[in-house]
Amino acid sequence: MKTKMKLSRAVQILLMAVFVFSLSACRTKPPARYAPPESILGKGRVSSAELAAFLVSANPLLDRQFAADFARWYVEESAVEGINHDIAFSQMCVETGFMTFGGLVTADMNNFCGLGSIGPGQPGERFPTPRIGIRAQIQHLKAYATSEPPKLAIVDPRYHWVKPGAAVTIDGLAGRWASDKEYAVKIKAVLERLYASSGNSRRA
Question: How confident is the model over 162-178, as a mean pLDDT?
Answer without folding.
Answer: 95
